Amino acid sequence: xxxxxxxxxxxxxxxxxxxxxxxxxxxxxxxxxxxxxxxxxxxxxxxxxxxxxxxxxxxxxxxxxxxxxxxxxxxxxxxxxxxxxxxxxxxxxxxxxxxxxxxxxxxxxxxxxxxxxxxxxxxxxxxxxxxxxxxxxxxxxxxxxxxxxxxxxxxxxxxxxxxxxxxxxxxxxxxxxxxxxxxxxxxxxxxxxxxxxxxx
Length: 200
Fold this sequence. Notes:
Elements: H1 2-26, H2 33-40, H3 44-50, H4 54-78, H5 83-97, H6 103-112, H7 117-128, H8 131-143, H9 152-165, H10 178-193
C-alpha cells in the first residue's frame, strides 16, 4: 500500500514537472494534454487520474508556485532583524519573481479564464495566501517600535496593492530599473508608517 502511494506521488510529480516545462516553453493555450502525455511517456488515463483537466493541472502548478514563493520568503525573512529591512527585502522578492518562467503562462491563463467566477475565486484564494506574511511583518514592526500604531489589516491591503500594482512597470521598464522602483515605493510607504523617533 505504501509503495503504491509512493509510486502515485512520483507519477503526479513527474506530470507536474513536465507540464510546467511545457507551459513555460509554449504557453498555456499552445500546450495540450497530448503534449504532456508525450513528455511524460505516460498514458492519458494515468494523467487524467491525477488531474481531471489541463485547467486543474495548471491550477496545481500555480498553487505550488505560490507556496514556493512563500517558503522562500520565510527563509529570507528569518535572516533579517528589523521590520524595515524585511520590507525592503520583500519588495526585492517581488522583483525577483518577475523572472519566474511560469509568469507569462499564468497571465495568459488568468486572462483566458477571467469570465469564470469559480476559477477567479480560486486564483484570488492563492493570492490571499500572501496576506498573513504581510500582516506579520507590519504587526512586528508596530510591536518593536519601528512603525506607528495603525490598523494592520488596512496597511496590509495598501502594501499588497503597492507591491502588486507596481507589476505593470514590468511591461514598460527594463528589468534593471524595477529594483530601484520597488525600493522607492518602500521609501514612500515607510514615510507614512515609520515612527519619527523609534521607541527605545
